[in-house]
Amino acid sequence: MIFAITTLGCKVNQYESQLLREALTARGHREQPFGSPGADVSIVNTCTVTHRSDAQGRNLLRRALALGGRVIATGCQAKVYGDALRALSPAVEVIPFEDIGPALDIQLPSRITGFCGHSRAFVNIQQGCGNFCTYCIVPHARGVPRSRPWQEVIGEITGLYAAGFREVVLSGINIGLYEGGLAALLEKILKETPMPAVRISSIEPWTLTGELIRLVVEEPRVCRHLHIPVQSGSDAILSRMGRPYDARYFRSLVEKIKALNPGVSIGTDVMVGFPGEGENEFGQTRSLLEEADISYLHVFPYSPRPGTPAAGWGDTVDPRAVKERVALLRELSRRKRDAFVLSRIGMEEDLLVTRAGRHSFRGVTSNYLTVEAQGKARVNDRVSVILEEPCEGYVLGRAIG
Question: Per 3-state DSSP, what percentage of the chain is helix, strand, and coil (rounded to 5)?
């Protein structure tokens, strides 16, 4: 059988697609690029965080239908809004990921052995979230918090190291809820595996403990990079969102991290146009983000999710105002990233090589900067570089040794 997989959304989805890929190839099936003719089965691993990701999932399914063969929709959109996908065509099979093994006559493995198309491997450590933010459908798609046994995580990372990977990204739906503590898991990984670099994916501010911060700022093998979603700088909006912190808490968290190590890169997510966000509330968000020593922003316009409390609220924001606010914050993100790059010029950074040519290479630093340098290296090598000059979208560096 020839199969094709395409994946939308988060690192957990990408991890699950890798599990599926390995299970299919273990049965002797062959993968081809999604969208090419000739696949016996095309699988779309969907995301439903926004209406845009919903639309992308539907478009990919239509593309697969036009090519013929069996068409399967799985992932979060299939779990929560399956009827909308079935309405596309009777030929679309809507299968939640937990049921996809029997549907394809395969047994999903307990761990991955590689990560197709990536220099860094994502390692899923946790599922589910119980916070139920008023805008978020994810708890309905992913269920209650549950953690993967640490022994499985250790075994998977050890195997990925043996396969040639030199950086892993710990991923989950809400990784700060890892049972027993994310810091304790990280300590076990550092002690029991040879993996030279471990990166933490997005982590909610109220779950970021002092011990975890200490590991990020002090431990050389833990990447100096944190992505901490704030969503809004208005206490009133944060309360309406169901976020269990205020703007002062986020500000003090960033200040604490940067005081311990100014080289740590801190990114954040911010939502624009949440119901009730007036000029005053947006101004509070903008002020917080301008003043906080963060390195970049991911800016999202609010997207109503059917089935969430906020989707039924009537105090919507003018789309023109949302568009203007998004543009302002994306420009602020550009300025923040430029300022962080300038603050690191002349500094030595550890880098994972993601692309190698005959006379130069490119990679990602521990603190999440893209660097290009002259010299010879191989993909997945870890190299020390001196940052020398900012460029559009990357930094020029000089390899040490």
Answer: 40, 25, 35
In terms of CATH, what superfamily is 2-104? Methylthiotransferase, N-terminal domain (3.40.50.12160)
pLDDT tens-digit map of 231-240: 999 999 999 9
Same fold yes or no, 111-223 and 226-344: yes
pLDDT attached to residue 356: 93
Average pLDDT over residues 135-156: 96
Question: Where residue 117 falls among pLDDT bands split at 50, 70, 90?
Answer: confident
What size, in residues, is the chain? 401
* Whole-angstrom distance, CA of residue 332 vs CA of residue 339: 11
Query: What's the burial of 130, exposed, middle or buried (CB within 10 Å: 0-12/13-18/19+)?
Result: exposed
pLDDT at 263: 96
CA dihedral 319, 320, 326, 328 (to 10 degrees): -160
**CA torsion through residues 342, 346, 350, 352, sign:** positive
- The answer to whether 70 and 105 are in contact (CB under 8 A) is no
The CATH number of domain 348-399 is 2.40.50.140:
yes
All residues at 6 or more sequence positions from 303 whose CB lies less than 8 Å from its CB, including other chains:
49, 50, 51, 52
Q: Which of 363, 339, 10 shows the shortest CA–CA distance to 202?
A: 10
The per-residue pLDDT for 314 is: 85
Third-level CATH fold of 226-344? Transcription Regulator spoIIAA (3.30.750)
Rounded mean pLDDT of 373-388? 94
Domain limits, the chain: 2-104, 111-223, 226-344, 348-399
Report which of 270, 277, 285, 280 is spatially closest to residue 316, judged by C-alpha positions.
277
CATH number of 111-223: 3.30.750.210
Write b or e for each residue in 352-384: b if 16 or more Cβ atoms lie within 10 A of its Cβ, otherwise e. bbbebeeeebbbbbbbbbbbbbeeebeebbebe
Q: How far apart are alpha carbons 282 and 271 in whole angstroms?
A: 10
Three-state secondary structure call for residue 293: coil
Grade residue 150 by pLDDT with cuts at 50, 70 and 90: very high
